[in-house]
What does this fold into?
Amino acid sequence: LSPGAKMGCFTFIKVMMILFNLAIFLSGGTLLGVGIWVKVDGESFLKIFGTLSSSILQVVNVAYLLIVIGAILLVIGFLGCYGAQKESKCLLMMFFSVVLIIFIAEVAAAVVALVFTGLAETLLTGLVTPLLKEKYGVDETFTQIWNVTMTEVHCCGLNNYTDFNNSYFYDTHHGYPRQCCDMQEPCNSTVAAEMAVQGCFKQILEEIRTNAGVAGGVAAGIAALEIAAMAVSMYLYCQLDEK
It folds into this structure.
């Protein structure tokens, strides 16, 4: 390519890099703002998004999750956008390093999720089952979370209805939650065994497997964007040596 063509290609890629990372920066700022809003004024958030949002907030602590993701996107967007604008080799290399770390972490998480699914189920059983026995029917928030989860996912307990054996709920109600009997009452061991409602862990895994194509497509798209971002940043980094 002629020097003019090379310069035109460099300028085009630089502009695309700036615009792409500006979008990331603005998205990160939006998520960070929403996360702070949820943390500071969670009541108005609940009024807008309803009861289900209350359960989600309690389970995954959406405020902190949004703040962390928003902050990461802000950093990535700033490094990419400002680094390309100022043609700073240092900022471009920092951008490349941060995206590479995130990419490696995502790959590692995917491998762990695929290989250690059984281990995850064992760990969750050891942690969650005692909580179901002690808190379900006692702690109002904890009970509401599980009621919403079991109703929406059509599941019972973490593994199955036996998770509620010798629990506070079973001892006081002389039976299982009605979700364990496909919403039939009374829900005793005979009906629960006959209905054989699956545990929530198995149901969620089944949903993930059912939508594996969509989830895999989204993951592949994100990975492709990350690889492209790293390639572009490295291209700009190398081209700066020739300018």
User: Anything to note?
Assistant: The CA atoms of residues 140 and 146 lie 10 Å apart.
